[in-house]
Each structure stands twice: as structure tokens, then as C-alpha cells.
Amino acid sequence: MGLCLFLIDNTMSIIQLSALPGDVHLATPGCPPEYEVENENMSRQLFEEIVSRSVKTKEWTRDDFEIGCPLGRGKFGRVYLARVKYSHLIVAIKVLYKSEIRKSNVEHQVLREIEIQTHLKHPNILSLRTYFYDEKRIYLVLDYAAGGELYKHLQDSPNHSFSERKAAKYVYQVADALNYCHLNKVIHRDIKPENLLLTLTGDIVLADFGWSVHAPSSRRKTMCGTLDYLPPEMLDGIVYNEYVDHWCLGVLCYEFLVGKPPFESKDTNETYARIRKVDVRFPKCVPEGAKDLISKLLRRFPAERLPLPDVMKHPWIVNNKGK
Ligand code: ATP
Ligand code: MG
């Protein structure tokens, strides 16, 4: 609680943290599917080196931080508000237990999260500033996304949907972040409202890189909704590319405006079938411009999906997103 009071005074100090030591290059971000197995093996070895302290990282320790209130909990991570003692900089710290990571065989996902989030620098991507560890835990030091989860904002909005203005702004920002990821050969693969956070100024930051394959959001699972954002090519288990993210952006835009994802059905098989047929039905509330954009993203054949720079220039986006 007390920590929240320091926020306004310390937003300017973000620059300071990025200048601190500690980035470790683990591998090249992004990995074509055909190299995943080899890459996973390498990641496991690297992970063992990190946890056994044979790779020198940085001098950060838990004692450098005052840990505050919990911000959220994921499948493996517990996330806390924290303050760097000497600078009073506010951050979010995600704590992962080494034993849980090993037991669940997700070393690769942890490495991917560290590697990608450390190296991607974009205003709409959550920055991982550094990490450190002790005997039992790994600590990821992240920028604090003071606006919280977009999912919660969506749930709290009337009809669980956003105005055209908000939807267009968010779609633009996600498209911008994804375009940057793709230029850096990173595919997010798990775009959905649960993995988008908001900054203090109400801008989107893309989070949760690296967990998509093995750790679908628990909330979606209980609603049997983990499938809602799956592109047809991932459903069919065939080779996919960065266009999976374009598909998810179309689903996201639909959910923002309609209040539920386009292929939501009573049971899993029906959702599968509707995704495969690209059975999208637009309620009257969806404006023509948005329908046009969504239809150009939700295409069965990946290469036909609208390129991200064109999403950002689409008339419905341009006319609604504001400055
Ligand atoms: P899962 O894979 O189940 O989604 P996870 O272990 O990857 O979870 P996160 O999703 O990264 O964990 O974090 C859990 C929750 O903590 C988020 O849903 C969010 O509410 C909160 N959280 C995470 N990072 C931040 C941050 N940087 N600023 C503010 N809140 C955060
Ligand atoms: Mg998450």
C-alpha cells in the first residue's frame, strides 16, 4: 500500500534502471518451429548453468529491493510491487521457484521470457530490466504496469466491450508492438486480453512472452476458452509463422468491440469447427470499418492476412484511435 504512494515521483527514474548492469545474452530471440527441439535442449543446459551459478550474472540481490503488495499470480509466477532501496524506483518483481520450473519442465519458457523481454525495447512491450536468483528462486525485475490487466478493464466495461476509440487505440498499439516483434523474428503466439497490461498513462504493454505453449491462462482454461484465440493452422498442428499473431489481433479486435471472442461456443468441438470454417458473425454493433479490418485479419490462409503496417494505416484505425 505504502509503495503505491511513490509511483508518481518515480516514473521518471525508469531511465536509471536501464543503465544498470546485468543484461545477459542467452540466445537469439525467436526460433523457427523446426529448431524448437534443439533450442529447448540448449535452453535447458543454459538454465542449469544459471541456477547452478556457473554463469556470472549480476550483483543484484533480493536485499536491494523492498517487496510490497502482490500484483498478481500466474501459473508459475507470483508478481509483487517492489521498490529499489537506494533509488526508490518502482518496479514489478516476478518470483519463480526453481523447483517448480524444473518439475514442470518449463526451463525453456523461462529462458525465452528472459531472453525476449530483455532484448525487445518498444514502448508497447513490457521491459524486463534484469533478473537475479537465490538458492530457491529466480526474480525477474519488470517495469511496473500501473494500469493493471486489460482483461480486467474489459470485464468491468459495459457489455464487456470497449468504445471504438479505445478499441482502435489498443489494436493500433498491439499491431505496432507485434510489427516490431516480427521484425526481430519473434512471434508472440499468445495474444489475448489476459496478456496485455496497461501503463499509468493507459497505453498497452505486451506481456507474457515465452509461456504461451505450456501455460495457457488459468482463467481461460476454467471457462474452456483457451481455444478462442487459436488460429486454424495451430489447431491443425501444421507449421505456422508470424501470421498467427495477425489472426489473434483480429480475434482481439472483435472481442474488444463485441465483448466476447468470435468463435466462442458451448463446447470445444464447436469452437474448433467454427475456427476452421472461419465462421465469424458480426452483430449490428460492429461498425463497417471494423468489420472490414477484422475480416482482413481473420483469413484461413496466413499469407492473406493484412500486414501489420497496413493494420496501423487502416481507415477505421486512423479515424478512431486519436493522437
Ligand atoms: P500465466 O502464464 O498463468 O499467465 P505467469 O506466471 O506468466 O502467468 P504473469 O501473467 O506474468 O505470470 O503475471 C501474473 C499477473 O501478475 C498478471 O496477470 C498481472 O496481473 C500481474 N503482473 C505481471 N507483471 C506485471 C507488471 N509488470 N506490472 C503489473 N502487474 C503485473
Ligand atoms: Mg499471464
Low-confidence stretches: 1-32, 212-225
CATH fold descriptor of the largest domain: Transferase(Phosphotransferase), domain 1
- CATH architecture assignment of the largest domain: Orthogonal Bundle
Bound molecules: adenosine-5'-triphosphate, magnesium ion
Question: Looking at this structure, what is the CATH superfamily of the largest domain?
Answer: Transferase(Phosphotransferase) domain 1
Number of helices: 14
Spatial ordering of strands, largest sheet: 1-2-3-5-4
One letter per element, helices H and strands E, the order comes to HHHEEEHHEEEHHEEHHHHHHH
Q: How helix-rich are the residues, as a percent range?
A: 25-40%
Q: Average the pLDDT over all residues and give the rounded result.
A: 79
Strand runs, count: 8
Could you give a short account of the major beta sheet?
A: 5 strands, antiparallel
CATH class of the largest domain equals Mainly Alpha
Sheet/helix structural class: alpha+beta
3D shape? globular
Estimate what percentage of residues fall within beta strands: 5-15%
- What Rg, in angstroms, do the CA atoms define? 20 Å
Intertermini distance? 33 Å
| Integer count of domains | 2
